Amino acid sequence: MKILHTSDWHLGQVLYNYNRSEEQANFFEQLTAIVAQEKPDALVVSGDIYHTSLPTVGNQKMYTDGVLSLHEAHPEMQIVITAGNHDGRSRLEIDSPLWSHFKVSVIGNLQYTEDGRIDYDRHIVRVTNSAGAVAGYIAAVPFEYPQNFPMEGDEPKEDRQRAFFSRLLARVGTLNEEGLPVVLMAHLTITGCDVTGHDDGIAGIGGLERTDVGSLGRGYDYLALGHIHRPQNIPGDALARYCGSPIPVSFDENYEHSVTVVEMEKGMKPAVRTIAIKNLLPLLTVPETPKPFEEALQALANLPKEQKGYLRVNVLIGDGNLPGNCNERILEAVRDKNIRFCYINRNVEEAGTEQKRVEYGVDEVQSKSPLDIAEQYYRETYQREMGDELKSMMADVVKDTLKKNHQTM
Predict the structure, then answer these.
(1) Cα 144 from chain centre
(2) Is-contact 288 316, C-beta < 8 A?
(3) In whole angstroms, how large is the CA radius of gyration of the chain?
(4) Is the alpha carbon torsion for 306, 283, 17, 368 positive or negative?
(5) Distance of CA 56 to the CA centre of its chain
(6) Distances in Å between the alpha carbon of 178 and those of 121, 172, 220, 265, 375?
(7) How far is CA 318 from CA 323, 351, 355, 381, in A?
(8) Count of other CB atoms within 10 angstroms of residue 48
């Protein structure tokens, strides 16, 4: 069985007020060309289709048109799509009966029978090849918090996630009498994975809890993971892999982005390779290492006129603050280039050593008020203080939220 593994499309992401639909549409064009070339038996998309749970009509149309183009590129191919933590899960699967006519299976939520029990068979997709023969099985699991997996039997509450995966793979084993390849799909953070460049807020610290790969059971030939944007194999499990996001979601994702091709044969270790995805508008950090503002400005002026992309300006701040007109001067420096200026990455130099801007850890965040954190975020993003009117509005929101939380306790 041959599969194409992708995830974390984040359709509809707005990067510092810039719409990214042009890049995302171009990704679909590249992916469609890859499907036509590779002709896989299945395409698996392991969550985070959208960037928000309420995508716009335009983003939903991009998704629909894109998936149809993938189907048309290789009509015999099975497409399996699961929801991630960014997706509106019920919204994603609302058109599932329609999609089934195009060999597309969409699983947004855990599937139940009429009597309230988990319907494991609805999580299992049988894949046929171009000749119509069964090539393998895909066990598709959408994002779910560990504590929300159903309890069945006498297992402790903390084992409900482990028990779900164990029962699902056992059911696949029962159906898979021929011993054909099995792919397990999941959207979560695996303990020990490399989250370099990823926002820790949604990679396990205050977001998704980390899961040991061993708790997902055995009985699969490849574990198609989604959520972490850096492509990687999982240490200690040669069968488990994050394919990564196809285009960078943040400036710190400064590594190659790709999709993964996996070929599996009965009783053999899967053969894994990647196909790079080129982003139309790269995320540029200029200069690469922090420099004083005037030197950083000169680096911008030296950019070639044909350079395209989003811009983060890497500035080293000494004893003083940035010039009051720093944003205007940056915009003037790139005026004749197809550059989308996003923000200044301020790095503080103290006592002769370079130190990146201070970021709060978990303990520090817990010791700060929500308003303090909002003011710092605003200051670092826009290089100015939050105005009194906005500060007052934020204070009212915090007060109202705390009041509502107190009433529900």
Answers:
(1) 15
(2) no
(3) 24
(4) negative
(5) 18
(6) 17, 11, 14, 12, 60
(7) 12, 9, 10, 19
(8) 25
Q: 122: closest CA among 88, 157, 80?
A: 80
Q: How far apart are CA 272 and CA 233, in angstroms?
A: 10
Using alpha carbons, list the distances in angstroms from residue 300 to 286, 304, 312, 360. Answer: 7, 9, 10, 30
CA atoms within 13 A on the CB side of 158: 3
Phi/psi for 289 (5° steps) reads -110, 145
Angle at alpha carbon of residue 18, lines to 16 and 24, rounded to 5°: 115
Which residues of the chain, if any, have pLDDT below 70? 199-208, 319-320, 350-368, 376-385, 387-389, 402-409
Dihedral sign for Cα atoms in the order 103, 107, 112, 114: negative
CA distance 374 to 369: 9
Cα–Cα distance measured from residue 125 to residue 1, given in angstroms and rounded to the nearest whole number = 13
CA–CA gap between residue 280 and residue 20 (Å, rounded): 10
- Specify whether the CB–CB gap between 2 and 43 falls below 8 A: no
Residues 6+ apart with CB under 8 A from 164: 118, 141, 149, 150
40 preceded by cis ω (within 30°)? no
Taking every pair of Cα atoms in the chain, the longest distance, rounded to a whole number of angstroms, is 71
Between CA 168 and CA 152 the distance in angstroms is 12
Residue 55 near residue 12, CB atoms below 8 Å: yes
Half-sphere exposure of residue 28, counting CA atoms within 13 Å on the CB side? 21
Query: Which segments of 188-307 are extended strands (E)?
Result: 189-190, 210-211, 222-226, 232-234, 237-242, 258-263, 271-276, 283-291
Helices within 302-387 (DSSP H only): 326-333, 362-367, 370-382
Query: Rounded to whole angstroms, how far apart are CA atoms 204 and 190?
Result: 9
The phi, psi pair for 129, rounded to 5°, reads: -90, -175
How far is it, in rounded angstroms, from Cα 183 to Cα 222?
5
